[in-house]
Amino acid sequence: MRLKSIAVSNVTPQKAADNLVSAALTYGGSDNITVIVIDVLDDGIADQTRKHLTRGVIATFVSFLALFAATVAVFFLFVSSEWYLGINGTTVGVYRGIPTTIAGINMSSLVETTSIEIKDLPDAVQDSLADGIRVKNEDEAHSTVENYRKQIDDANNKAVKKKEDAQSGGTPTTETTTSTTSSGGE
Predict the structure, then answer these.
(1) How far apart are CA 85 and CA 92, in angstroms?
(2) Residue 20, domain extent
(3) Residue 1 has what pLDDT?
(4) Half-sphere exposure of 135 (CA within 13 A, CB side)
(5) Do 148 and 109 belong to one domain?
(6) How far is the C-alpha of 17 from the C-alpha of 8, rounded, in Å?
(7) What is the C-alpha separation between 106 and 28, in angstroms, rounded?
(8) Do 59 and 35 share a structural domain?
């Protein structure tokens, strides 16, 4: 070990050779000592370090790429499991996804167009539909649409009944009697 430490602690091969000869003589070597020092310019350690570093960088990159892909997959699974009611032209539409756009990508798709006209719904519902009314699943979306349909039908029936009541009560039938009186002078 002592020889190795002397050999590697010197800056030049000549200096290492001189120090090795001196050490050999000091520790009892004979007068004729020969030392050959070879200066290795590339010991391969740099290549091993570079390969190790490259593998580490590639492994880290692949790990982050896999994590990113998993995150995107989970996000799209979440998005595809969401449902909402929204405006589709002039009618109510049933949508799958979330009512937003990310990086120019629409996060929802129209699943069904209903026959319910937006104008027939109360203003508050119209405003909510403009933002998207989230529902748990497709069945709840259909149930909500049917509730809207019943509300519209009930409102129409009340309007018709009110109109009929107004027409029948608005022109009352009254009897008029006339009486004549004569002034007598005969």
Answers:
(1) 7
(2) 1-39
(3) 59
(4) 19
(5) yes
(6) 11
(7) 87
(8) no
| Residue 183 within a domain | no
80 touches 111 (CB < 8 A): no
The per-residue pLDDT string of the chain (186 residues; one tens digit each, 9 = 90 and over) reads 577 787 778 778 888 888 888 888 888 877 788 888 887 776 666 667 777 778 888 989 999 999 999 999 999 899 889 999 999 999 999 999 999 988 998 999 999 999 999 999 989 999 999 999 999 999 999 999 999 999 998 888 888 888 888 887 655 444 544 444 444 444
Same domain for 112 and 132? yes
Residue 65: inside a domain, yes or no?
Answer: yes
Answer yes or no: is 18 within a domain.
yes
Of the candidates 129, 94, 130, the residue with the CA atom closest to the CA atom of residue 112: 94
Instruction: Please tell me whether residues 150 and 98 are part of one structural domain.
Output: yes
d(CA 92, CA 102): 23
> Comparing C-alpha atoms, which of 11, 13, 16 is closest to residue 24?
16
Same domain, 97 and 143: yes
pTM recorded for the entire structure: 0.55
| Cβ count within 10 A of residue 83 | 24
Alpha helices, DSSP H, located in 81-137 = 123-131
